[in-house]
Amino acid sequence: LAPVYVGPSRKNFIGELTGLPTYSPERDFGTLGAVLRAAQNGASYSRVHNVKAAVQALTVFMSS
User: Fold this and answer.
1) pTM, two decimal places
2) Interior/surface letters 3-19, b for 16+ CB within 10 angstroms, e for the rest
């Protein structure tokens, strides 16, 4: 199978769920939740704005 790519970074669905304004950096926390769920379900790659936070979250998530 081909690798699965996701791009949830600061998207509208995060704003709808959290009530945060469009493209707010505060949406990065919601982005991390989406990235972790995607990784849990087999995603190979994620497009994010805050790479450092995503790498840290995925490192901890994948080690547990």
Assistant:
1) 0.90
2) eeebebbbeeebbeeee
